[in-house]
Design a protein that fits this description.
Blueprint lengths: L3 E3 L5 H9 L4 E3 L12 H9 L7 E6 L8 H11 L4 E6 L3 H8 L3
Parallel strand pairs: 1-2, 3-4
Length: 104
């Protein structure tokens, strides 16, 4: 039995499957447990990059492909003028991200 697996119930891929009745599908959420992010490793990242414990950390993970929302995240963060907040981008193709960042 073939089944399409989607990571979110609210995304264009599953919307397409619903609209075109592509067959059987299941949603397996890709969310993370908050306990995964409260560990010594995360605290070490804060130390390594000099991010204070009093600063809010927004973590954006994914290889830069142009489809993961890195550019949009940077633009939103820039315009938000958020205080005591750090946007931390983790992924591959750092040179492309630096080029986008330089525009802000």
């Amino acid at each position: 039995m073939d089944v399409s697996v989607f990571l979110s119930d609210d995304y264009r891929d599953i919307d397409f499957a619903r609209k075109h009745q592509t067959g059987k599908w299941v949603v397996i959420p890709n969310g993370a447990d908050e306990r995964e992010f409260d560990s010594p490793a995360i605290r070490n990242v804060r130390d390594k990059f000099k991010i204070g414990n009093d600063e809010f950390l927004i973590l954006h993970v994914g290889s830069y492909t142009g489809m993961k929302g890195h550019k949009e995240a940077m633009e939103i963060f820039y315009h938000s003028k958020a205080r005591n907040t750090v946007l931390f981008l983790a992924g591959s193709h750092l040179s492309k991200l630096r080029k986008i960042y330089s525009k802000f």
